[in-house]
Amino acid sequence: MIFNSIDFALFIPIVFVLYWFVFNKNLRIQNFLIVIASYVFYGWWDWRFLSLIFFSSIVDYSVGLGLKKYKETSKRKLLLWTSILVNLGFLGFFKYYNFFLDNFVTAFTFLGVEIKGNSLHIILPVGISFYTFQTLSYTIDVYKYKLEPTKSFIAFSAFVAFFPQLVAGPIERATNLLPQFYKKRSFNYDKATDGLRQILWGLFKKVVIADTCAGYANTIFNDSEMFSGSTLVMGALFFTFQIYGDFSGYSDIAIGTSRLFGFNLNRNFAYPYFSRDIAEFWRRWHISLSTWFRDYLYIPLGGSRGGSWVKIRNTFIIFLVSGFWHGANWTFIIWGGLNAIYFLPLLLLNKNRSNLNVVASNSVLPSFRELINILITFGLTVFAWIFFRAESVTHAFSYINEIFSSSLFKYPEIFPKKVVLLIVMFMGLEWLGRKNEFAIENIDYRFPVPVRWASYLMLIGMIFYYSGKVQQFIYFQF
């Protein structure tokens, strides 16, 4: 089941009514309803993979209790590694088996040794990368005594499978989300209406911006050899806004839906395309994944505490692993490595935390220097997205090669003026709302009722106008 579908539009009111008006007096039953609703939500796609979520829940719940029971370091490490190997084992098999097999065969072929390897027709379970990291955060934090293990299997199952963010995040820490299942929740009108606004904005980003850009990006990337360099630049730009509208739109809908049920999820995007350097970009893009790698990989490796070599090593490790997390393709690894190269000069010069505040926080427009830095950072990001979107490394390099040819100066064969204007309008709204968690968060306070509702109806009208064939979210494949 996906957010931008009729199924979800019917599903959410039913769960909402049962949750607040039928089972509102019993916390345990409310949590059990969330588990059932989450399993229905996920099983709508393919019920067979519910067994993976259930098994993962049993393993990590049991590991948590074991970590509470045993004090010996050897036993605790054994339990921790059991959780890590089970979770990463499932992830590795379903997501990376064919990748490693194909590269293993290719490597020996290059050495003159013929090896036959049989690839498996494996269906990648939706969201496995997300809920795997979510459950791992629980066992790691319990192991480090940062969190008390839960005694309630229902609460833990609800945490693992919480349907708003199950398949594409945000990747919630157990320290933030799990305790919310222990507390009685009361309906809050202001919180619910705020959630509805965020859902509306998320749907706008997904249906109007991402899906519209997707059509042009797919046309250009799928037949890139037919187009001029200027058109390929347009394709890269369309994908840049597609992936942002698609993924941040999902996060907005997830966070807004959670608020309808009394839960607070962590922010996952903070206007990354207004970043003034790459370090700021990665503090604002997919925040839940960036901070996960920081806390569970980068810092344990030594972080930035060592010399230059340690900083370089750890930076490349975290970005390459991040790229590999996104998919079993060398294009993602190169994308990660490229971002590491972008990031390293800032880290080595101790300028990676230069831009911590909101851009142009005390003015309407950015300064000339800020504008130049935003444009440079945006350009570097667009270039890196080419590798992320390309079908192969060869495709990426041929795409880039054509961009840096004389055809770059031709008028693009594909230049939909209405779509470009739509993107400009969208970014204008994002700029005006850059101090808020989402762009239209404060629309309730800035405008009188008629203007407010006219704005809502305009967004709803545009969503219906641009809706057509239901498009899955990009990050479902990760």
Please outline what is shown here.
The protein has helices spanning 6-22, 27-46, 50-69, 73-110, 128-143, 153-161, 174-177, 189-222, 229-260, 278-284, 287-298, 308-326, 330-348, 368-389, 393-403, 417-432, 443-446, 449-466.
Task: Please describe the structure with a list of short key phrases separated by commas or semicolons.
globular, mainly alpha, 478 residues, 67% helix
Can you tell me about this structure?
This protein has 478 residues and is mainly α. It folds into two domains: 6-187, no CATH class; 190-276 and 355-477, no CATH class. Helix content is 67%, strand content 0%. Helix 9 (229-260) crosses helix 15 and helix 11 (287-298) packs across helix 12. The two termini are 16 Å apart. The mean pLDDT is 90.
Tell me the layout of helices and strands.
Blueprint: H1 6-22, H2 27-46, H3 50-69, H4 73-110, H5 128-143, H6 153-161, H7 174-177, H8 189-222, H9 229-260, H10 278-284, H11 287-298, H12 308-326, H13 330-348, H14 368-389, H15 393-403, H16 417-432, H17 443-446, H18 449-466
Helix pairs in contact: 1-2, 2-6, 3-4, 3-5, 3-6, 4-5, 8-9, 8-16, 8-18, 9-14, 9-15, 11-12, 12-13, 13-14, 14-15
